[in-house]
Amino acid sequence: MDIQKLRYFVEIVEKGSLTKAAIALNMTQPPLSSVIKKLELELGVQLFDRRGKRLILTDTGRLLYNRAKNLIASADTIMNELVEQNKGLKGQVAVGCSTNANLTIIPKVVQRINDTSNIVINVKEGNTSYILDELRNHKLDVGIVRNVFKKDDLHNEILFTEPLMLALPPNHRLLRKKRDVRIEDLKDEKFLLQATTFGHGISEIIIEECQASGFFPNVIYWGTETLPMLNMVQMGLGIAFLPKSFLKLESFNFPPIVEIEDSRLVIKISLVTFKDRIHKASTDKFLEITKGVIDDMYDFTELYS
């Protein structure tokens, strides 16, 4: 089956007439009509119900139209991959991630990609639920998330696990303790927590650990981003938790940060892709480079020291 004939057929369906399709394709109407008749003969089916000058799509034609669009998209993807490879990998990758990942991981990835290829990175910031929806709608190629979840249609590759640290207001009483802070020391504190929109996130981990220590945290604020919470901690409004890798943001004015003794408070960073995605060379290259960047950025013995 000639893909070009399918392109002509789809154009006719979407334009609604041979005349409009011929104009869009920059060709005359008789050759276009001939192509469609040859396609019908080749397939042994009637694609249009011809009533005077009107072309009405048959049920068989509707089926071919839906399938043809997918075939054309796949053919275009193959051609784009070949062109990317031939030109030294040129393409675009749509990435969804948190603000933290956009501040820490993405700049290093962009720097390394610019050194080796011509890939353009389009970043959308958002929570895990938003990122997964965009992946399913094929508006994103890759997601970088912190939440733990299991979905049959998504491939979730854990890149690393890191401990959570505790942010305290300046001059807080716990800063005067001669030993490390324990979870039970936080029983009377006001908590600022990250709202989880999907899966098992930071807030669930913290609440479970508090309950295991005999209390339920007094949460006075739910937010989606950690940096605004750290500003609130600096103002003395409560305590917050942050991944240890946040401390790599050298330009940020952090409140006092302490470790939690014998804590099981850890989070995982994952790369997420749609399992049935059409593989693009540019996306595969992005995934490869991102894994390398994270390996270089994070000394995993240092994260736990």
UniProtKB/TrEMBL annotation:
Q: What is the lineage of its organism?
A: Bacteria, Bacillati, Bacillota, Bacilli, Bacillales
Q: Which keywords fit this entry according to its UniProt record? A: DNA-binding, Transcription, Transcription regulation
Q: Give Gene Ontology CC terms.
A: protein-DNA complex
Keyword Membrane: yes or no? Answer: no
* Any one GO molecular-function label of the UniProt entry: DNA-binding transcription factor activity
Q: Where is the HTH lysR-type domain?
A: 1-58
Q: Where is the signal peptide?
A: none
Q: What family, per the record?
A: Belongs to the LysR transcriptional regulatory family.
The domain of life for this entry's organism is Bacteria
Q: What is this protein called?
A: LysR family transcriptional regulator
SUPFAM superfamilies assigned = Periplasmic binding protein-like II, Winged helix' DNA-binding domain
Pfam families given for it? HTH_1, LysR_substrate
Organism per entry: Bacillus aerolatus
